[in-house]
Amino acid sequence: MFDVITNGLIFGLLLSILIGPVFFSLIQNSIEKGFWAGFFMAVGIAASDAMYIVITYLGISQIINNETLNLWLGGVGGAIMLAFGLVSIFKPVPVTGAKQSHEESSVWFRQIMKGFFLNGVNPFVLFFWISIASKVTLNYEYNNYQATTFFVTLIATVFGTDLLKTYFSTKLSQLVTPRFMKIMNRVVGIALILFSLRLFNFVLEGFGYRLLG
Question: Domain ranges in the chain?
Fold first, then answer.
């Protein structure tokens, strides 16, 4: 069982240090709206990961192996990331102040849904969990109890590191200026747009192969 937990920690840390659209959005959200906004966004991210774990580990082949579903998921994910990116670039710098931070962070359901959908609509996240589920079932040959322990440890590790990112991001809020926030919004927006273009390229290549085939 020690090996199972160790492997869960290793894969959790690996997933945590991967730089993706969720990483940028979590940092930005925490600086702008406070710790609890980042906390609830991290809850949404963990929930979407848990959803993919259930889908992949249970082996719902008609979903996992459905190429058309993956392509549509990529298109929807690209559109949502593109929208997030454009909004981040053009939105005005938020007015700082404890009152606004409290009001924004209190909208917990919105933050959970933001984290859930931003992470959940990315097909590359699905592909990641497919590879992990395959390794657990084929390479490690875990039974159901061991697999559950592995995935719980992994998700807990990711969630814990996301909270650390959120905590340290809020500490930076005392040092940021409106100019810094404006620059950061644009950097995050450009990053999200680039990720959306990557998804659109994935969709176009997929449909191109199907047409040629």
Answer: 2-12+20-212
